[in-house]
Design goal:
The structure holds 2 protein chains of 2 kinds. Chain A is an alpha/beta fold. The longest helix of chain A is centred in the first third of the chain and has 15 residues. In chain B, β2, α6 and β3 form a beta-alpha-beta unit. The two termini of chain B are 27 Å apart. Classes of the chains: A alpha/beta, B alpha/beta. At the A-B interface, α4 and α6 of A face α5 and α6 of B.
């Protein structure tokens, strides 16, 4: 099975062939893939590598968009979102122009590389800027579907790719949250690659599981439609815990509810190792999620065990 | 560009600026670029207020968005915006703030105010025109010597030189406002990266016109326009 990033490179190469207005903007990272795919050879004027210059990477994309092009910008999440953040705000948003930003690295894909290459705050940061949609695919097939949708749809999109992925693909209409199973004690919303450990964690629990691969705008209607009577919600996010909590709360502002946000913690771990080890350290492996959900549900359930 | 005012334009522009500032004293930032803007809009730029979306028009990006009264005055004198708008300057519902917004003001190509954004945008626009095989339009970007402190400008200067963006022209208004200065001169920052450079008196209209004239070039061009310190 190919990775999300390989799928992105191939799909972008196809889009460059299909559409004359698509331009890829890179800052050294990812260039080799586009050389290998033939995109650089076939479209030298529409595969732009600015070198290690991330402010220019975003600013230049804004200029391309001002002239009617559809820029796709790709880099590691910290260098795509955090370093040039004001350029997202001003050279794109404030100019009233659009781009599709596609990141790799996520929260802890680069475990051994350390803090410099990790961006658990990326989705929260993008969410603060007006007009952006955010997609968090859980598998390569979903990444292609969401990416093609974003390019075709227009507007500003942030697509967060990761090496952390589910082994199964959930096919959804882009933007929609889908129910995977139903229960009565609570509602667990798993985002992107958090689905697999979440399903494992709650396998024997009487809870509804929803899957979200687009988190901005959040599909609040689906959330309300599947809310069980007890209105206990667990949000499992592969980035900063609680990133979408305010959206969830806003959609449920007229319904008394409890909300537990599981995600990457604020503290800097200063650990290397593997992504799996980081996942466990943040309590986002199946055992960690299970412990969080059980404590949350049993804390409010006078009948006792959440496990059936 | 036809206008109803004198070739020098100064009396008319000062009257228009006074509609905003309410007196004859204008901010340094406004004055420093008045002559360059006037020459650009009356003698250099191929743009038509009646067809602002013409893909073959020249693009002018005011990166140094500070003190845009001179900019608004020139846009009014040249028919891009109605003179009556000038009296609304900085009011809640006015399209004219102390930093220009392209969404609100006809003829304003980029929104600016935070320093160091214009050149990157201009590089992107120039590359888009190249990819679309539109060879005629030129892209101009006006920055200040203090604005050059921002590192993002140097990312753009380096890359534009390497890519030989011959339709791009940067205009640096030099009123020596950069806190730590530019030893060896501002032009050196451009020539090192493969740009051609003209250093001119930024108040001499014929010098400005000559420096901004369209010549076949091998790479991007920079015009360093010296104006009085504090102007």
């Amino acid at each position: 099975m190919d990775s999300m990033r390989e799928r992105f490179t191939q799909t972008t190469t196809d889009l460059l062939d299909e559409r004359g207005d698509v331009v890829v903007v890179l800052a050294d990272i990812g260039v080799a893939g586009f050389v290998e795919s033939g995109a650089v050879g076939r479209h030298p004027e529409r595969v732009i590598n600015v070198g290690i210059r991330e402010q220019l990477m975003i600013g230049l994309a804004g200029g391309l968009a001002l002239e009617g092009m559809r820029p796709i910008v790709h880099s590691y999440a910290p260098f795509l979102v955090e370093r040039p953040y004001e350029f997202l705000k001003l050279s794109l948003g404030h100019q009233d122009v659009d781009a599709v930003l596609v990141s790799i690295g996520a929260s802890y894909d680069a475990a051994a590389e350390g803090r410099t290459h990790q961006a658990p705050g990326d989705v929260a940061l993008v969410s603060l800027l007006p007009g952006w949609s955010v997609h968090v695919p859980g598998a390569a097939e979903e990444a292609e579907l969401l990416f093609r949708f974003a390019v075709a749809r227009g507007g500003r999109h942030y697509i967060r790719l990761s090496t952390e992925a589910n082994t199964t693909t959930v096919t959804t209409e882009p933007g929609r949250v889908v129910p995977l199973r139903t229960g009565s004690l609570g509602l667990v919303v798993a985002v992107g690659p958090m689905l697999q450990p979440t399903l494992e964690a709650v396998e024997d629990m009487d809870v509804t599981v929803l899957y979200a691969s687009t988190v901005l705008p959040f599909d609040g209607a689906a959330l309300r439609a599947h809310l069980p009577r007890r209105s206990a919600i667990v949000l499992v996010e592969p980035y900063a815990a609680g990133t979408s909590a305010h959206q969830v709360s806003a959609y449920l502002s007229d319904i008394p509810h409890r909300l537990l946000s599981l995600g990457v913690g604020d503290a800097e771990l200063r650990k290397y190792g593997t992504g799996e080890e980081h996942r466990a350290a943040h309590g986002l492996d199946a055992a960690g999620i299970r412990a969080g959900v059980v404590a949350f549900l049993e804390g409010a359930d006078q009948r006792g065990s959440a496990v059936r | 560009m036809k206008t109803t005012t004198s070739r020098d334009g100064s009396a008319e522009l000062h009257r228009l600026i006074s509609l905003m500032t309410g007196d004859e004293k204008h901010s340094a930032a406004a004055n420093s670029m008045l002559d360059v803007l006037w020459v650009l809009y009356t003698r250099v730029l191929e743009i038509d207020p009646e067809n602002l979306s013409d893909p073959l028009r020249d693009r002018f990006y005011l990166s140094k968005g500070h003190g845009p009264m001179a900019y608004y005055a020139v846009l009014a004198a040249c028919g891009f915006i109605d003179e009556s708008l000038l009296t609304t300057w900085t009011a809640f519902d006015s399209p004219l703030g102390t930093h220009p917004d392209r969404v609100l003001v006809p003829g304003v190509e980029v929104s600016s105010g935070s320093l160091g954004h214009g050149l990157g945008l201009a590089v992107g626009a120039t590359l888009a025109l190249r990819a679309r095989h539109l060879a005629a339009p030129r892209v101009f970007c006006l920055v200040g010597d203090g604005e050059l402190d921002e590192g993002s400008n140097h990312e753009a200067i380096q890359y534009a030189g390497r890519m030989e963006l011959d339709r791009l022209t940067a205009i640096v208004i030099d009123n020596r406002s950069s806190t730590h200065g530019w030893p060896g001169g501002i032009g050196l920052r451009f020539t090192t990266e493969g740009w051609t450079v003209d250093e001119i008196d930024g108040t001499d209209h014929d010098e400005i016109e000559a420096a901004l004239a369209d010549h076949p070039r091998l790479g991007p061009h920079a015009v360093v326009a010296r104006v009085p310190r504090g102007a």
